[in-house]
Design brief:
This protein is an all-alpha fold. The protein has 13 helices and 3 strands. A hairpin with a 3-residue loop joins strand 1 and strand 2. Helix 2 packs across helix 4 and helix 4 packs antiparallel against helix 5. The longest helix is centred in the last third of the chain and has 110 residues.
Length: 438
Amino acid sequence: MIPITVPQSLSKITPFVRRAEELDRIRLHHPECRVVAYYCRNYAAGIAFTIATTDDEMECLDKILAQIQPCGESICGVFTKVESYKICRHFADSKFSKADAEDRLGHADKNVAKLFYASATFYEMLTQFHTNEDEEGGGEEEEGGGEGAMKEYGNEQEEENNRRLYAKHRAVQILRAIKDGRTVSPGRYKEEDDGFLIIHELYEVAPSSSSATTTTTTTGEEGDAGDVTIETIAPHVTNATPEIQLLVRMLRVENNRYKTELQQQSQSQQSSQSLSHSQKIILTNKIEQLKELQQKTMDQFKEIHIKYRQVQKERDELRQEVNLYTGTATATSTTTTSQQQQQQQQKYYQTKSISELQTLESKLRTQLEHIISTKESKLKAQIEEEEEKNLCVICQVERKRMLLMPCRHLCACDTCGKMLKKCPLCRQDVKERINVYS
């Protein structure tokens, strides 16, 4: 689709229009992008419809509606509202999770900030599903699940709002840090990460020694010491809200599980080390057996190869003998047949009289003379043809000795070739003449 120029007065809908255009470029490889792009434009059109007043704004709205109309029947006719919401929500979650994963690994850069900003746009687009539900009050249900079915996802609105605010806030943080030249600290979101930040703030204001504070902050940022943070913070959050206390208990359970996993890993490593010596002995024995077997097979292969060579030599000798015998037999057969023919001819001529032999001689002479005359006439005709081919095409008297360039035609004698300006065969201009002597 053709990109739409959005007026400055409709800057609120610009992110949604741009996200839809980006999704149009990849919708062939990702079919769900068609649904998300449709609802991005639908949300942008809903906003523009309430604030558009000038001609430019109404023209922009018309263009958005023109892009929505062909897709609306195909999408709304196939997917229900709940299914469309699931597709859009899954798409927004995937973009947010990808940005959050890169951010947690410390790979935050401009691309991650853009990804956070795009996910915030998609989460904001999802509000159209909830606003329709609130306005209609869960009226008539559509076929296959409609407005009433959307009530099941009413609790997701708060989560989407939290993610949207976090994504926008995190995108601004990353861009500011990059602009100021500071290193971007890894971000944290949701249960354990938000809890960690809240507990960290409580711990800093709680009554405790300065040494404990420094230990906790440094280990929480650089080291692995999650145990130190939890065990040190736990006494100071007894007066906190029940949610924080529950979060601390969850963190303690996670730490215990992590400890047990580490112990199991260390035990498995020890058991593997204790068995490594016996395994090495078994492996060495097997390797030796394989080497012996390989050596035996190689020896057998060499013996078979030698026998094969001998059989080939014997076969070649037998073939030569057979060829020799067949050659002598054919030679003797041909000599015998020729001798028999000669004897038969001699007997035939001996039975004839002198007059018959004279008439036969005259017939053979006339036939021989006729053959010689025909051959001579053929030779003369060939010679004349060759001479005609070698004669100049202009004067038909002298032989061809002038090669015309650049067409490379040998068609004229010396005298005629000097006067030619164009080749008589191809009518191409003559630029050079070369004498040929044969």
